[in-house]
Design goal:
Blueprint: H1 8-27, E1 51-54, E2 61-64, E3 69-70, E4 78-83, E5 89-97, H2 107-117, E6 121-134, E7 137-148, E8 151-162, E9 166-174, H3 178-190
Length: about 190
């Protein structure tokens, strides 16, 4: 039994809605459109009364509340944390100069591979976007979850290209406390200036 097929011209026009749908999905991954997961990322100044930590090599500034204290991490970085009970990190912000093969285009895969290489397990990407605006540049960001030792963390990690340098900014907190700590991490990232 033969199956009927629409005429060639009808088949050609039937492809357009599917192609348009694919283009709209791809447009949602970056560019001028800001995916819903990054709706909070509205470039602007840091909240009043916040302190600034500076990256020694480029002068990039990381804004943070006064209760978040500088901590020692890798040389050449700027890091602050909010310490919880038993000296566990309840919230973390870090700025690091671009150091390797990370680019705006490969940022999500580069970042998740990097945290796996540092020993994190169960790494899961929740959202990623490119073409995001920052006060002094453009960036790519990923929101991911991972497990270190006995704690599951959520992080927002962005690679930001500014006029003077390309820099990584990371904000992280235990998943169990994410909703509270995101109220600090998100504005810190949105005000990040390279």
């Amino acid at each position: 039994m033969a199956t009927s097929r629409p005429p060639r011209s009808a088949r050609r026009w039937a492809v357009w809605p599917a192609a348009l749908g694919v283009l709209l999905v791809l447009a949602g991954c970056g560019g001028a459109h800001r995916p819903r997961a990054f709706a909070w990322l509205r470039p602007g100044p840091a909240p009043a009364g916040w302190k600034l930590a500076r990256l020694p090599s480029s002068g990039a500034t990381l804004a943070h509340p006064r209760a978040w204290r500088p901590i020692h991490t890798d040389p050449g970085t700027a890091s602050v944390a909010l310490m919880g009970p038993r000296h566990k990190i309840a919230g973390f912000l870090n700025v690091t100069p671009r150091q390797g093969a990370e680019t705006l285009a490969n940022w999500a895969t580069f970042r998740t591979r990097h945290i796996r290489e540092e020993g994190s397990r169960q790494v899961r990407i929740a959202a990623a976007a490119t073409g995001l605006r920052f006060p002094s540049g453009v960036g790519s960001c990923v929101i991911d979850d991972y497990r270190n030792a006995d704690t599951r963390y959520r992080e927002i990690a962005c690679l930001v290209r500014g006029a003077r340098a390309t820099t990584v900014i990371v904000g992280a907190a235990p998943v169990s406390d994410w909703n509270r700590q995101a109220r600090v991490i998100e504005p810190a990232i949105a005000s990040f200036a390279t």
